[in-house]
Write a structure and sequence with these properties.
Elements: E1 3-6, E2 11-14, H1 15-19, H2 29-39, E3 48-51, H3 55-59, E4 71-74, H4 76-81, E5 87-96, H5 99-105, H6 109-114, E6 117-126, H7 127-132, H8 157-174, E7 182-189, E8 193-198, H9 200-209, E9 213-220
Parallel strand pairs: 3-5, 7-9
Antiparallel strand pairs: 1-5, 2-5, 3-4, 6-9, 7-8
Helix pairs in contact: 8-9
Length: 237
Amino acid sequence: MKKLALSSEIYLIKASELKRLPRAAEINGNISGTLAASAAPQVSSREITVLLNADAAAASGDKEVVPAADVLLSGAETVSAAADRDFLPVRFAYRSYPAWQAFFINLIKPVKRKFYSVFPSTYTTTLASLLANNITRGERNEQNAYQWTNKKWQISREEAHRRYSDLYNSIKANGYDAKSPMLVMLNRKFGVKDQLLQGHHRIGICKALNVNEVSISFWAVPRSFGFFKLFTKRKIS
């Protein structure tokens, strides 16, 4: 049976998007009871917590009946009281394997990839909050754009410069394209620390252009034992 896992970080999410989510109490009795049982004691009533679309979990073998949309598990009163334009602190939840299983899943990359959970929802957040969460894995700029260590993805400097310039000019002229969310992998590092998977070039450009409103979506890996947090104390630049 899968358990509820939480993101390692809290994300600032636009209130208008949270208001559209169904509340756990509004879902039919069987599902609501299942959510309540799996949520305690991880979910704090003092936090805004969103359960990411559990259809992905069902597709990977979860036989429980689950809702089709993301669900607001806690913090409904705070969300209702906020102005639509406000950004509210949210912790994201998803269905995961028990920690002992997650530990072995996370040991080997090819195995780990088979257990990725992919969530289709997109949320609006702030660049400042992403940077404050320290989830990036390095900085990308015009000098090191699209320089990959994996030879499979390597391209010429001319092509890299063209791609970077096109992206820079597009964001400068049109702002951030909400239809192209940055991808955050929940608990990617050691199974306990969120990391940015895709979007490092966009983060660098938005930072340079002072574009603060961006969009994100989520993938997740099974959450491992909490003591692995000791290995994530070093700042991830």
